[in-house]
Amino acid sequence: MERSRPSSPTHSPTEYAKGESEDFSALRRLLLSPEQVQLDRLRQRLDTFVIGPQEVSRVLPDAIRLRARQDNRLLASMLPITQEALALSIKQSPQLISDSIAPILGAAIRKAISRAMREMLQSLNQTLEYSMSWQGLQWRWEAWKTGRPFVEVVLLHTLRFRVEQVFLIHKKTGLLLNHVMADGISSQGEAAISGMLTAIQDFVRDSFQQGQDEGLESLRIGDLTVWIEQGSSAILATVIRGTPPVKLRDFLQTTLESLHVQYWDSLQNFQGDAAVFLETRPHLEDCLQAQFVKRRKGLPVVFWGLTAFLLALLGWWAYQASLNHQQWTELLKRIAAEPGIVVTTIQEEGGRTVFHGLRDPLAVDPERLLEEVGYPPYAAGFHFEPFIALTPEMVRKRAITVLHPPESVEVSIEGSRIILMGESSHGWISKVIRSAPAIPGVSEISLERLVDTDVKQFESLQVELEGQAIFFLSGQETVLNRELVKIRQVKDILQELDTKAVQLGRKPSIYILGYSSPVGSQPTNMSLSERRANKVLEILRETPFHVLKLFATGKGVDPDVKFGPGGGQRYSANRRVSFRVVEPGISPRGEVGAKIGP
Amino acid sequence: MIQKKICMLGGFAVGKTSLVRQLVSGIFSEKYLTTVGVKIDQKSLSVRGQDLLLVLWDLYGDDDFQKVRASYLQGASGYILVIDGTRKETVDVAWKLHELARKAIGPVPFAILLNKHDLVDEWVVKHPMISDLSDQACLVSMVSAKTGEGVEAAFFVLSEAILKS
Ligand SMILES: Nc1nc2c(ncn2[C@@H]2O[C@H](COP(=O)(O)OP(=O)(O)O)[C@@H](O)[C@H]2O)c(=O)[nH]1
Ligand SMILES: [Mg+2]
Asked: Which of A179-188, A396-405, B81-90 has the weakest average pLDDT?
């Protein structure tokens, strides 16, 4: 650019012009006119010189080429601009970019989509397979049947997948670069296997005329699946037991890709020495994944079991709560209804419900009420003052406690009157009469419907005795042998009567009444009847009695015996001795006693 | 340990499979040969202090050498040309396979094994027949897959040559 500076003072033609004459100038114009014009024009051009786009455009391609050959400073300075421009371009017109790269990406995307579809189907299958929750039960059955621990059966079934071996294979030679195995897996001939896997790849590729990048993706051998990931220089083959998830495939692919990046040079220059690939071990071991179905299958059984248990617990609790409530209401009802207990207040004291009030000592033990309604004893307490309850129930209870009535006696209370019904011994009745008035709440005793069994027996003995008759022959007073038997029976009855009379505190007199038939004179008959009575008395006197007093008396002809025609029988019925029981103060049966008097 | 892929090449029934069987007890059934066309075995040996693992690719092939897939030869560090000493025509097949291999994998070491040496009385193959071939081979040896004669040594020599190359 130095040369284009026209203002330099020493060389400028205008400078010369200043100090010289017009003539010289004219001469010069004459001589040098054409050149002068040229010079002027040149000077003008130089004065206004700017490199225009036109000039640059002419040299730019070559300049770039030359500079790029020289060093990469041009590249360096262009890089950020290019990047920015690209970014801007994508931002402003993404369509343009996508149009340009679509043809390249199309194939890749198609492949990706078809793979995604396959993967989706696979995971659908898995979901179906694993959502059958009733399998858990089947396994339990199996475990029970085979006698193996359930856990073992579940484990056996829940091994979803396990990567057992990973081969990293050099694609071109089929040689093994590295190999890892899961625990417990033993393998031999990995190098041969590795070769076979490659050979099979080639076989499939050749057989089905696939392109170089396509290839066998998976092999199935029984339980085992071999997944083969293809890279440009290496193959990652995994031997998997079970059903591997699609995610694993992505992982393997990613692993293989990163191995390619990391070992690119080693892969290209591989000559059979795999030492450098030993470092891939951690990457390959990352591929040794395993997944057990996380008890999702076993879970439902446990889950439902747990749920059932919780529900049962809840139900039990609810039942208990309602039961508690029921018990509480029942308790209140019972206590309120219980005679002899008056609840004045109910208080919560130290976590328990305490009943305060009055309790008749004869009232039921409240603790027993708790027990009866099933209320927890620790949850309730009682604080009762003693009192005497005058409710009919309590009076009755008290009466029963005091009187100890026999089972045959029913005790009831009517106001302050105690009513006894049924039958009991004379002794008990006497006791009742003595002690009942002392019972609080009792002022009257009703014995009308209470039968004195001793009196009853006495009376029936009396009836029995008075039904007895000792017969005699006409005009005779001797006791016939057969009648002696009867007298013995009479004696027995008398003895019982004696005992009963003692019990009843009575002193009955036994009248032995002699009779005779109307045949004969009245005095004869009288005397005969008297003799007959005395005869019987004589015999009966042989037995001692405690309280019985025996009297013999002749009554002559019995006026009660009617004599009609043909009444021979009745005559003989009149030749007899009968018995009467007469008690002082107690109205005699029949008119006999009244006639006799004390 | 270094691995080397070695291919067994030769006409039908020359004894390739028998030779490999003599060397190793393989893990793959020989039915692979007819189905997939290849059976691979591995044999480890130590050559001058270097642990070596030979990966032997036994190719199935009838005399129609065209059927040998070039991909099987890929990455081989050496190969063995097997000739049946009792059949002249197997020399020709070996020659053609040799050319095929050359084209596919370039000039790698190879050994020529004249097999069935136990039947040497019936041999029709004479040395001059294979002189063109034997000039380039690292080893020409008379072996018997049946008796095992010379087999191990042949693989050893080829391994040495491969390591040196
Ligand atoms: N006598 C004898 N027979 C052999 C020998 N090697 C192979 N054979 C027989 O030759 C036949 C073909 O052998 P094979 O190994 O299958 O040949 P390939 O087709 O090259 O694999 C079989 O019947 C073998 O028993 C050998 O060294 N001696
Ligand atoms: Mg064979």
From this structure: A179-188
State pLDDT tens for residues A501-515: 998 888 899 999 998
| Cα B53 to averaged position of ligand 1 atoms, centre (Å) | 25
Residue B43 structure tokens = 């044999």
Q: What is the rounded CA–CA span in Å between residue B127 and residue B144?
A: 17
Contact A174 B27 (CB under 8 A): no
The CATH 3.30.1330.60 portion of chain A extends over 454-595
**Torsion of Cα atoms, A493 then A499 then A504 then A509, to 10°:** 60
Indicate the top mutation candidate among B8, B18, B62, B142 to test ligand 1's pocket, ranked by most ligand atoms within 8 A of CB: B18
- Of A545 and B34, more confident: A545
Nearest residue (CA) to ligand 1, atom 26: B116
Please state, in angstroms and rounded to a whole number, the distance separating the CA atoms of residues B132 and A172.
30
CATH class of A392-448: alpha beta
When the candidates are 3.20.10.10, 3.30.450.70, 3.40.50.2300, 2.40.160.20, the CATH number that belongs to A131-292 is 3.30.450.70
Range(s) for CATH 3.30.450.70 in chain A?
131-292
User: A454-595 architecture in CATH?
Assistant: 2-Layer Sandwich (3.30)
pLDDT value at residue A597: 31
pTM confidence score: 0.45
Q: Where are the domains of chain B?
A: 2-164
- Give, in order, the Cα–Cα distances in Å from A405 to each of A111, A389, A433, A585: 107, 21, 12, 29
Closest chain A residue to B35, measured at CA: A203
* β-strand partners of A176: A169
Query: What percent of chain A has a predicted confidence (pLDDT) above 90?
Result: 14
**pLDDT at residue B51 greater than cutoff 70:** yes
Which amino acid, A150?
F
| ipTM exceeding the 0.95 mark | no
Burial environment of residue A30 by CB neighbours within 10 A (0 to 12, 13 to 18, 19 or more): exposed
User: Residue A146 and residue A154: Cα distance in Å, rounded?
Assistant: 13
Q: Which residues of chain A form CATH 3.30.1340?
A: 392-448
Angle formed by the axes of helices A481-504 and A453-466, to 10°? 160
- For the domain made up of B2-164, the CATH class stated in words is alpha beta
Q: Per the CB < 8 Å rule, is A272 touching B37?
A: no
Cα separation, B158 vs B56, whole angstroms: 12
* Closest of B15, B58, B14, B18 to residue B36, by C-alpha: B58
| Nearest to B54, CA basis, from A288, A442, A183, A189 | A189
Q: Which residues does a 6 A CB cutoff place in the pocket of ligand 1?
A: B 10, 12-18, 115-116, 118-119, 144-146
Q: Please, what is the average pLDDT of chain A?
A: 79
Among B23, B43, B71, the strongest candidate for a mutation testing the A interface, having the largest count of A CBs within 10 A, is B71
